[in-house]
Amino acid sequence: MTTTLPGELVDAKHANLKLGPGLLVLSDGHGEPNIISTRAGFLKHSTNRSKWLVESNSRRLLLKYVPAPQEYVVGAVVGRVGEGWRVDIGGAHAATLDGYAFEGATKRNRPNLKVINSLVYARVSLAHKDMDPELECFDAQTRKSEGFGELKGGFPVRCSLGMCRLLLDPKYFLLPFLGSMFPLETAVGMNGRVWINCKSPKHTIAVARCIEGADPDGGGMGEDAIKRLVGTLDL
Question: Which part of the chain is the Exosome complex exonuclease Rrp40 N-terminal domain (predicted)?
Fold first, then answer.
């Protein structure tokens, strides 16, 4: 696994190259594009080398979230602006969520998000260093909600970036294991926030404790240790 530091050149080449978080395209003095790293971390790419990103495990409790296009985020509505809302996603600046950025939204049929206590699951549609981030609550290709939108009820918890990526991996054991024990609904944001919705408060607490225990930046517990932990809880 290759490590990289901010400002280092990255030799990423592909006909359909897609850059993820931590990478930026800049032109050199001759107009040729150079790809550089904007953060310290591990340089990763897909099997066919068409998708590249820099993975770091910064705790969002300590550092501000740096939005990147197409990342999923869990945000809290903090204000109203025009026909939309300002949403806290853990970054240096609040993001903007337009009132029409929902599936099937029209002037007469738009969500009515409360400024206090409303949570949303959204996709970062615009992220630029000189502009506030913008969010959308629908899939970019299908224009359908696909799980995005207001998160009603439930409880938000925070974790590291590395834990978020693990939870988003369908092969990772934790959420399927917990879901086999009791009904469970989650929304995992790449901004270090996870929304949990269970019918019982004790199940919600159990999920939160397991995420904290398995977090590589926390307990770092493996599958066997998590199963032992769950065995000690009154479920």
Answer: 17-60
Q: Is 25 helix (H, G, I), strand (E, B) or coil?
A: strand
Residue 176 has what pLDDT?
Answer: 96
Q: Is 159 exposed, middle or buried (0-12, 13-18, 19+ CB in 10 A)?
A: buried
Q: Identify the domain boundary among 151, 184, 207.
A: 151
CATH of the domain at 43: 2.40.50
Q: Rounded to an integer, what is the distance from CA 48 to the centroid of its chain? A: 24
Residue 201: domain span: 155-231
pLDDT at residue 1, rounded to an integer: 62
Q: 214, 169 in Cβ contact below 8 A?
A: no
The Cβ of residue 27 has, within 10 Å, a number of other Cβ atoms equal to: 9
Q: Which of 184, 128, 148 is nearest to 75 (CA)?
A: 148
CA–CA dist 141, 49 (Å, integer): 22
Q: What are the residues whose beta carbons fall under 8 Å from the beta carbon of 186, sequence distance 6 or more? A: 167, 175, 194, 195, 196, 197, 207
Residue 20's nearest CA partner among 69, 57, 58 is: 69
Asked if residue 78 and residue 145 are part of one domain, the reply reads yes
Q: Which residue in the block uniquely carries the two structure tokens 């909600």?
A: 145
Q: Express each pLDDT in 80-111 by its tens digit.
A: 988 899 999 998 889 999 999 999 888 888 88
**Amino acid identity, position 219:** G
Cα distance between residue 119 and residue 99, in whole Å:
15
- 200/207 Cα distance (integer angstroms): 11
